[in-house]
Amino acid sequence: MPEPARLPAYLPADVAQFVTDRLADGSYGDLDSLLAAALKRLRETETAAAAWPPGDSSCAALARGHDWSASALGPIGCWPPALGTTVSNVVNSPVAKFLVWGVDDPVLLYNDFFAALAGGRHPAAFGATIGTVWPELAELFAGLRERSLAGEALLLREHALMLDRERAPEGSVCDLFFTPIYTAPGRIGGVMCTVLDITERVRAQKILTRRGAELQAMADVLPYLVIRVDRTHRYRFVNAYGAAWYGIDADRLIGMQVEDVIGKTAFKERRVLADRAMAGETVVTRAVLPDHTGRRRRLELHFMPSYDEAGRIDGAHVLAVDIEDTLRVLEEEHRDNTRFRTAMRAMHGVLWTNTADGRMLGEQPAWAQLTGQSFEQYQGYGWADAVHPDDAQPTIEAWERAVTARSMFVFEHRIRDHRGGWRTFLVRSLPILDDAGAIVEWVGVHTDITEQRRAEAALREVNETLEARVLTEIERRRGAEATLAHAQRLETIGQLSGGVAHDFNNLLQVIAGNLELLSHDIAGNPRAERRVANALAGVARGSRLSAQLLAFGRRQPLAPRVVDLAAFLSGMDEMLRRAVGADIEIDMPAPANANQWNCLIDPAQLENALLNLALNARDAMEGHGRLKLSLDHDGDGFVRLAVSDTGSGIAPEIIDKVCEPFFTTKAERKGSGLGLSMVYGFVTQSGGRVQIFSEPGLGTTVQLSLPRGAEIAEPVEPVQRPAGASSPSPGGSEHILVVEDDEQVRIAVVALLEGLGYRVSEAPDAGRALALIESGLRVDLLFTDVVMPGSLKSPELARLARQHLPGLRVLFTSGYTADAIMHDGRLDAGVELLSKPYTRDSLAHRLRELLDMPKPDRPAQPRVLLVEDDELIRLNATELLIEAGYVVDQTDTAEHAIGLAAAARPDILVTDINLPGLSGPDLARRLRGEHASLGVVFASGAVEARQPGALADAVALSKPYGRSALLAAVQAARPGGKAVDAGLPQRFGEPA
Questions:
Q1: Which residue, 882, 875, 867, is CA-closest to 938?
Q2: Pfam families in the record, alphabetically (predicted)?
């Protein structure tokens, strides 16, 4: 029997197996018969192979007609089933494929689509060994062979492959998919590769990438923001300017949510505009926006729809042009133009323009306003019709010379104004030249010099009598200099007096306060009581002296009122007669019509001044004579009150000194020398003047010129109390806050107040006093010194304290008010002042006057807690609420608002919905849990501000809002409140 190994190698496996099986079981008969049967079997196999592989592609036909017996694969009939099947799949595939079969010297097979890529290598490459026909492909396969033959499926993306296109080698880019072909379990006969030629796609992608880079480069050089966002409001494109604006790298910015970059509040405003663009609308608007440094700039925003390749809107383009610098230039130009026009008006200038040959064209409003000419009248050379006939020809000649020389035109002529009169003008005009030096137009100004020329004429007239006028002027100046020197001396003394009075009054207050306290400790000891009374009398004398010094120095606080002098003098008649004695006759003015002698004056100080003058007159007449009071008007808006006596008069050499403090002609201890100085200072501080006329041996007249009052006079009762008139010092149980920087004064006044029964708190300065009130201290009256150290002044303390305590009474005290509560010598409106030093009795009565004043008719406005993170909105809303009478606590965070609410217990909460940290609704719920009656107003610019919230009774206030809407919302939030306008605030849950 033949050995199986000696059978022909070309026999297909099934034929070889057929022969082997027959030899093994002995059923072959003889060998020749067996071989004949085998050959028959082989011919049947070859006949079937002749029709393999099926298909009508050129490569299928090529495979069927190829002589495979000469190749390493052998006849088709001898191929392994896996090879035959794979070849059939390859040649009939609709995509480019090739098959590498074998291990040592693999054979290349492929289909028609790959043949197109092979170019000139086809058909020689079909069925040939890969290394002989396609070295680079063989090299690629060699690099992947071990992995492919190990059964690994491989993918090469965008692989560069040299192909032969129309017999010209060309580099191509392909995606290669390698699939191992198994002939038996664990045994791989070859590798099939699917080839996708992506050369054009890669080339197109490179073009797109390059164009995208070019677009990015072009956008990056633009001096404004260029952005594209998709429908999810994520950044998909941003240029370098935009990345720098946000302070975020462009690569990191792409894909980020817009809200995360610009914040919730700004996003809500911009989203509305972006959504409109995504609906197909182009929106242009302006806004003031901050960059990443917080610098706020004015921008012009353009929102436009963005389209994809299919023409569908896939987002929005945003173009943001920074117009801050442009607007500033325009504003500066506007300011410059306004300044120029204002300067023209200030100098009586009329601006005009002319063409190169001197014709007036277009609108010339200033010229028309000056001359009254219509547009048609001044067109062309119509301006010449306004020039005086005698000046017309000289003007034209001077103008022609300036045009020829292309130089400034300067001339003086008369112009008929719109009233028909002639006024003198100086005209100056300059030509505007082009680059070639030719005149483009003229710009000129007519300046009215009529008054200047009149003054020059008057000056010429004056010069003719110059010598006489110089002598007169020298004499006048000498008198003025003497008057000025006298006034300066009095002013210097007054300033010194005011400064001394301040410290002196504080010292007197310490003494007086302690003496008042001591008087209670020594009650029942007559000797000690007498000594304390004498000491208090000394304090009173010192107080009067200080008051006279302040009056002379024009530093005393005045409370002027409109007073009918005739009625006032009538009311003082009895007082004056008691003061001068029965041996002096008093002549009073006759009754007059009501308000005929009205003047604006402090009645208490006027009463003191008249008493001083009456007592001086009494001493000058030595108790016998005639005192006359008379009234008159002058032409300067004053009422003249003259006090005349028939006394000894004043010597001429001393009449200029009698108003100086401490100057007196009386015997020692007969006068302080402050009476007339007090009168002089009081009248001067009131805006009037004092004149003294006297003749030795005949008498003296002191004339007071007092400012007239235009309003109806108020009835005035005499201020001086009868001697010995007094009443018990009233006390009370209210709470008083004492603010005094002088510790000794503060100790004394606190003790006086506590002795009167009051509850007292104290502070050494305004800052600490305000801190006490802000901490929740409730007081009924603020008693504060006017002049104190520290940045916070007493008037500001009073204003801020009243914001926290609307019903608070305020009483100022001072020994020298300066300008803190007094302006132009008068107490500010509504200011209550108790001058130092004061007695226990005067303090007690003054306190009760203020504390017993009736409360305002309207109820106090509730306390509002305002929570708003936008500083401008918060400050504006705070001011509006305070103006409306509300007490306002304000902050920018909910966390801080919780602390304020605990201390101040507000009645109404006005809060934005979106706050940093805790939200507005969360804050409202928390505070409502602690204060069930708390009214709530939600203020927001978002649409969701009107949807039902956690608090159904809260009031919704839409931003932006004005004063009416804000106050209506607060009113509606009060318990039982209703919106005053259905179109303004609405409660949550109500239809918007």
A1: 867
A2: HATPase_c, PAS_3, PAS_4, Response_reg
Q: Specify the 3-state DSSP secondary structure of 983.
A: coil
In a domain, 517, yes or no: no
- Asked if residue 73 and residue 187 are part of one domain, the reply reads yes
Q: For residue 362, is it left (φ>0), alpha (ψ between -120 and 50) or beta?
A: left
Give CA 192 to chain center in angstroms.
Answer: 74
Rounded to whole angstroms, the Cα distance separating 924 from 955 reads: 12
Tallying the residues shown for the chain, one arrives at 992
- What mean pLDDT is predicted for residues 359-382? 85
**732: which 2 tokens?**
């009370």
CA–CA gap between residue 954 and residue 182 (Å, rounded): 78
Same domain, 684 and 598: yes
Q: Are 898 and 915 in contact (CB under 8 A)?
A: no
> CATH no. for residue 969?
3.40.50.2300
Count CA within 13 A, CB hemisphere, residue 788.
Answer: 28
Q: In the listed set 458, 492, 514, which residue is the last one of a domain according to the structure?
A: 458
CA-CA-CA-CA dihedral for 512, 513, 514, 517, to nearest 10: 120
Residue 547 lies in a domain: no
Spell 72-103 as b/e; 16+ CB within 10 A means b: ebebbbbbbebbbebbbbbbbbeebbbbbbbe
Q: How confident is the model at residue 819 (pLDDT cuts 50, 70, 90)?
A: very low
Same domain, 311 and 356: no
Q: Give the start-end residues of each E strand in 402-448.
A: 409-416, 422-433, 439-448
Number of domains in the chain: 7
CA distance 177 to 969: 73
Is residue 602 located within the same domain as residue 673?
A: yes
- Same domain assignment for residues 183 and 65: yes
Residue 40 to residues 8, 69, 573, 690: CA-CA distances in angstroms?
Answer: 15, 18, 168, 159
Same domain, 108 and 243: no
Q: Are strands 809-814 and 822-823 parallel, antiparallel or unpaired?
A: unpaired
Place of tokens 């108020």: 714
Whether 617 and 647 have beta carbons less than 8 Å apart is answered as yes
Q: What is the residue-wise DSSP string for 265-285?
A: HHHHHHHHHHHHHHTT--EEE
Answer left, alpha or beta for residue 962, where phi above 0 means left and psi between -120 and 50 means alpha: beta
- What is the token pair recorded at 987? 């409660």
* CA pair distance 964, 69, nearest whole angstrom: 105
User: What pLDDT, in 10s, does the model give residues 126-183?
Assistant: 988 887 777 777 777 777 767 777 777 788 887 777 665 554 456 778 888 888 888 8
Rounded to whole angstroms, how far apart are CA atoms 539 and 541? 5
Of 545, 558, 645, 570, the residue nearest 606 (C-alpha): 558
Cα–Cα distance, 586 to 626 (Å, whole number): 6
Give me 772's structure tokens.
Answer: 């006490």
pTM of the model: 0.32
Instruction: Output the DSSP codes for 546-592.
Output: HHHHHHHTT-S-B--EEEEHHHHHHHHHHHHHHHH-TTEEEEPPPP-
3-state secondary structure of 359: coil
- Report CA torsion sign: 568, 569, 575, 576: positive
Give the SS3 label for residue 224: coil
Could you tell me if 434 and 406 are in contact, meaning their C-beta atoms sit under 8 angstroms apart? no
Between CA 874 and CA 487 the distance in angstroms is 52
The residues near 55 (Cβ < 8 Å, ≥ 6 apart) are 88, 91, 92
705-763 residue pLDDT tens: 888 876 777 666 555 544 444 456 788 889 999 999 888 888 888 988 998 999 999 99
Buried-state track 392-416, b at ≥16 Cβ within 10 A, e below 16: eeebeebbeebbeeeeebebebbbb
Same domain, 938 and 842: no
Report the candidate in 928, 902, 898 with the shortest Cα–Cα distance to residue 915: 898
Single out the residue of 880, 874, 923 nearest to residue 902, CA to CA.
923
